[in-house]
Amino acid sequence: MDYYSQKLNQSIVVLLLFLSFPLICFGIRYFPSNDHPDILSEFTEAPDYRNGIHCSRDLIHVAMTIDLEYLRGSIAAVHSTLRHASCPENIFFHFIAAEFDPASPRELTRLVRSTFPSLNFKMYIFREDTVINLISSSIRIALENPLNYARNYLGDILDPFVTRVIYLDSDVILVDDINKLWNITLKDNRVIGAPEYCHTNFTNYFTDSFWSDPVMSRVFGSRTKKPCYFNTGVMVMDMKKWRSGNYRKRIENWMEVQKKKRIYELGSLPPFLLVFGGNIEPVDHRWNQHGLGGDNVKGSCRNLHAGPASLLHWSGKGKPWVRLDEKRSCPLDRLWEPYDLFRRRGWGYQQPLDG
Q1: Whole-prediction pTM value?
Q2: Whether residue 157 has pLDDT greater than 50
Q3: Burial of 111 (0-12, 13-18, 19+ CB in 10 A)
Q4: CA end-to-end span of the chain, whole Å?
Q5: Euclidean distance between CA atoms 187 and 183, whole angstroms
Q6: β-sheet with 192-194: strand ranges across
Q7: Burial annotation 85-102 (CB, 10 A radius, 16+ → b, else e)
Q8: pLDDT tens-digit profile of 89-122?
Q9: Maximum distance among all Cα pairs of the chain, rounded to whole angstroms
Q10: Phi, psi of 62 (to 5 degrees)
């Protein structure tokens, strides 16, 4: 190749790089627009909730995950907890953020501080590579998010002095004093307290290959009582017993079995059932009126269970902030709305053409 041909080729390469440069930048940078404002700057400050004169100095520890996708749910959950607490200044929130979430832990810390200026909290970073190789496919892709598995690692994530914690999912609101839930007694050396639902068909949570295996199917045989379904979105946890019993590893062992033999279909819940089903402290059903998001496929509207309610839980496919913004809300989504501190409703969704 002669000198002029080489120069021509070099010029073409430089020109192509120059033309492609804006596209490369656009692919790795975020440019806010009026149609999609930065969600992190769109929350209004919550009222300042203060203790009454009767409150002690004893802390109530609450652990929650926090990320960009469920941010409105997390903020509403905190707001509802403070609003109904008899001693809101005694509540210490432990927020667990994903290492590579679009909203960094530092940004989320600033948001929480600006929304709840007097809140006692700490932000922890969850390393997704801790669990990523243990996660198997689920019936809904949202259930494969590594942050769903952060509850398995609370014993390692939280500071050692935290010996008891209430774990809450991001799609809940409280309509009662969390102190009542905090004060339940975990009897008979139990590690977890949660509402049980024994009317459901427990066998449906595991595959035929699980029940046909003579060794695995006997795992529930030694339990002190019949194993029942419980929802892991609301749990009172004795972290001292959790750590000493190495329950994180017990859950991981079942996740490793799942990778090899496919013994369940539903995300992070079945390993908890395998380890704790039949061995938890039953809590009144009022503390987890779950399933309000509908089933995991269609997300249809549902009603409350019979009886009083202290905590509403939009587990399932449908989330109230999404349905409200899309003008297709379920009746019970209106109970969530008063706790929503987001200024611009409907910012991220296309409005119907006939709307």
Answers
A1: 0.85
A2: yes
A3: buried
A4: 64
A5: 12
A6: 120-126, 91-98, 60-66, 164-168, 234-238, 192-194, 281-282
A7: bebbbbbbbbbbbbeebe
A8: 999 999 999 998 999 999 999 999 999 999 999 9
A9: 90
A10: -125, 130
Q: Please list, in sequence order, all residues whose beta carbon lies within 8 angstroms of the beta carbon of residue 97, skipping any fewer than 6 positions away.
A: 65, 66, 67, 103, 104, 105, 108, 123, 124, 125, 126
Across 12-26, 97-111, 147-161, least confident range: 12-26
173's tokens: 């609101």
Eight-state DSSP code of residue 196: E
252-255 contacts: CB < 8 A, separation 24 or more?
252/134, 252/152, 255/134, 255/135, 255/136
Per-residue pLDDT at 26: 28
Would you state the structure tokens that stand for residue 187, as one six-digit string? 């009897």
Average pLDDT in the chain: 86
Reported as half-sphere exposure (CB side, CA atoms, 13 A), residue 56 has a value of 4
Confidence of residue 300 (pLDDT cuts 50, 70, 90): confident
Answer whether residue 19 shows pLDDT above 60: no
Take residue 206 and report the two structure tokens written for it.
């595991």
Stronger pLDDT, 260 or 347, i.e. the higher one: 260
The single-letter code of the amino acid at 327 is K
For 55, other C-beta atoms within 10 Å of its C-beta total 15
270: enclosing H helix or E strand:
helix 269-276
CA distance 258 to 218: 16
Query: Which one, of 141, 58, 60, lies nearest residue 93 by Cα?
Result: 60
Which residues, in sequence order, are bridge partners of residue 342? 43
Written as one letter, the residue type at 98 is A
DSSP state of 303: P
Q: Is 291 left (phi over 0), alpha (psi -120 to 50) or beta?
A: left
Per residue in 309-347, pLDDT (tens digit) is 999 999 988 999 999 999 999 999 999 999 999 987 654
